[in-house]
């Protein structure tokens, strides 16, 4: 968001943090989220005027933001503590600083088990579960691949087949051993690394929401890094009581393909539009298939609705990797999630929108029905 929307603690507690009318707020969020093809939709035909408070803070190399109702301004100090929680999680999970819990694991766990906190161990267990559910399409050990492809430092390059093979030898959850009795992790081969880049923002939103829920907050919307969204309770400015998120056309940003209606649910969107490189006329996305070592292809964006933001983030990455041919088995295993893939059409440079498990009350498709493929 714009710089003038970052607020001091004193201003926020005094209620000076960005109270804006419904008409104003849509345009700011649409601009902020354009890269991930999602946008907050204006409250539809509110029965009474509603003003939302909004606050943002920079963390995990992106803007985190919360929106809640002006009538609930008494939770302002709790919101600030939730931002502090997000920063603490970044301190724990980052692999881009001199030290963190994850860096300590990567440095030491190949030599023997490393003890973790109960919260971090639960996140590791979730990562193992999601890896199994996606048949390896989501994997937290993919850093060696990101490194040889140059995406680790945002300097994309085409590696040799030998480099890819060497990196693949260090990728896979078979190299990770968790011990629930001691809440420890061991990396079974030197050079294996873990990172939570594909689920860290969502996990931070889940933790922030848990803090607010414990303090009695009930109606609010979080987003992190343009691609992770978590809704709680009702949007009182909307007759449907939901928080609506728009899905943009990847080739025509002024055109909206659908609206998602969130109620106590999370949304994650993955896409390769912002990190990629081109070589000999071919585009290579930063989203890598950990099973093959090559960038995933054939999908513009993958959006997943899930019970938690960590799951939505991780599974949107997996759905991007799996593509239209693979999301069917995932949705059969996880009937509590819904998936929308926006893919290139076979002809005419158009698109195909592939949908699985999406209930009518959870979305409104706005595109030509001919574009839709329902699994």
Any descriptors?
375 residues; alpha+beta; T-fold; 2 domains; 9-stranded mixed beta sheet; 4-stranded antiparallel beta sheet; 9 helices; disordered N terminus
Characterize this entry briefly.
With 375 residues, this protein is of the alpha+beta class. The chain folds into 2 domains: 3-86 and 206-374, ApbE-like domains (T-fold); 94-187, T-fold (Orthogonal Bundle). It has helices spanning 9-13, 22-32, 76-93, 101-108, 118-133, 143-148, 161-168, 200-214, 309-333, and strands at residues 38-40, 52-59, 62-69, 114-115, 176-179, 184-187, 220-224, 228-232, 243-248, 256-262, 266-271, 276-279, 282-285, 301-306, 338-344, 351-356, 363-365, 372-374.
Question: Which helices and strands appear, and what pairs or packs with what?
Answer:
Blueprint: H1 9-13, H2 22-32, E1 38-40, E2 52-59, E3 62-69, H3 76-93, H4 101-108, E4 114-115, H5 118-133, H6 143-148, H7 161-168, E5 176-179, E6 184-187, H8 200-214, E7 220-224, E8 228-232, E9 243-248, E10 256-262, E11 266-271, E12 276-279, E13 282-285, E14 301-306, H9 309-333, E15 338-344, E16 351-356, E17 363-365, E18 372-374
Parallel strand pairs: 16-18
Antiparallel strand pairs: 1-9, 2-3, 3-7, 4-6, 5-6, 7-8, 8-11, 9-10, 10-17, 11-14, 12-13, 14-15, 15-16
Characterization of the model:
With 375 residues, the chain is of the alpha+beta class. It folds into two domains: 3-86 and 206-374, Roll (T-fold); 94-187, ApbE-like superfamily (T-fold), CATH 1.10.3980. The chain contains nine helices and 18 strands. The strands form four sheets. A nine-stranded mixed sheet has the order 2-3-7-8-11-14-15-16-18, covered by helices on one side. A hairpin with a 3-residue loop joins strand 7 (220-224) and strand 8. It starts with 8 loop residues before the first helix and ends with a strand.
